[in-house]
Write a structure and sequence with these properties.
It holds the Pfam family EamA. It is a multi-pass membrane protein. This is EamA domain-containing protein. By secondary structure, the chain is an all-alpha fold. The protein contains 18 helices and no strands. α5 (66-78) crosses α7 and α7 (98-121) packs antiparallel against α8 (124-132). The two termini are 30 Å apart.
């Protein structure tokens, strides 16, 4: 999901921008890290579990519009960051950055709502794989808007991801009108468009975050959560999608949606305080594995061979991006960096 991918990038920027709060927390956890050196990766994997369960809930609550579900999800975005803003005494809405904060919130909100619509109109695993490819496209938009270099490894990742997305969406103009889906409630074209456009919005949200990298991550996430709640509430009211969830299971699942989002973000933040962003990004790929597992367990949908092969390509691209990021963050004289070879160039 876009907001937890952005949170991973935000915490990484906070460490790299001279913010002392995250490194201090890291130093306090050193004894624990020494006892369990893979704790950061374990927490990142656990965060993937909670975020993937959020996707299951969104797909299951068919009587509640995705826009309103997004509003409940953003409550989980806002809750963990408000105490951090208060504790660090950060300016909540700093001058000179307000327009960018609003724009970034709008872009992120639209991206998440579109991903929710994709979950409704596509198999869970297919939609999750496409949405999870956001980091791969960041290099493309960073090149367009920020004039950052887009090297050979970024180009390879983008090409592999596009091929994977084509295999997953199975467009009729390439593969013919063969119908692979057993669920007649799906609208493959609508779901594929929503998932891909969600990825585009998510990638541009990353670019905006790079422009805002001087701000503390809690300030950006607090603005994101608050503005997104107002935005989704407005959309739900305008389109007549605002309703109270039914008593019982629906309300319980809505609470779980916000709670799992909260837990996923906290675990992801903790993992990034203990481990470099590159290995965490690789561990976060478990999100795709969980999506395939839940698709079979909860929705009794067996993925097609095209979906599996496409997911392998996208997963490989995301892992390539994570490995390269990890390699570039290592010291120049590191033996591990030399073993990674061309990835560190």
């Amino acid at each position: 999901m876009p907001e937890h991918l952005e949170l991973q990038h935000l915490v990484d920027l906070s460490v790299g921008s001279g913010d002392e709060s995250v490194p201090n927390l890291l130093e306090n956890k050193r004894p624990l890290i020494k006892r369990c050196p893979y704790l950061g990766l374990m927490l990142a994997t656990l965060s993937s579990l909670f975020f993937s369960l959020c996707s299951v809930i969104v797909k299951s609550l068919v009587n509640i519009d995705p826009m309103q579900l997004a509003m409940f999800r953003f409550i989980g975005v806002l809750l963990p960051t408000v105490p951090i803003v208060i504790y660090t005494e950060q300016p909540v809405f700093p001058q000179g950055k307000r327009l960018l904060l609003i724009l970034r919130s709008i872009v992120g909100t639209v991206g998440l709502m579109l991903s929710f619509y994709a979950f409704r109109n596509m198999p869970l695993a297919d939609a999750s794989v496409i949405v999870f490819s956001v980091p791969v496209f960041v290099a493309l938009f960073a090149r367009v808007f920020l004039k950052e270099p887009c090297g050979i490894w970024n180009t390879i990742s983008i090409i592999l991801t596009l091929i994977g997305v084509i295999l997953i969406t199975h467009p009729p103009f390439i593969f013919g009108n063969t119908q692979l889906e057993t669920n007649q409630n799906y609208n493959s074209l609508r779901g594929a468009i929503a998932a891909f456009v969600s990825t585009i919005f998510g990638a541009n949200a990353y670019v905006l975050l790079r422009v805002l990298k001087g701000l503390h991550f809690s300030v950006i996430m607090t603005n994101f959560g608050a503005i997104a709640i107002m935005q989704t509430l407005f959309y739900s009211f305008v389109f007549g999608a605002l309703c109270m969830p039914n008593c019982g299971t629906e309300r319980f699942l809505v609470v779980c949606l916000a709670l799992f989002s909260y837990l996923g973000q906290i675990l992801l933040t903790m993992s990034l305080q203990m481990e470099q962003a590159g290995p965490v990004a690789i561990a976060r790929s478990a999100d795709i594995v969980f999506a395939f597992l839940w698709q079979v367990m909860f929705f009794d949908e067996i993925p097609s061979k095209f979906s599996i092969f496409g997911a392998i390509l996208v997963l490989s691209s995301v892992m390539l991006v994570g490995l390269r990021k990890w390699a570039l963050a290592l010291p120049a004289d590191s033996q591990l960096r030399s073993k990674l070879g061309a990835l560190a160039q």
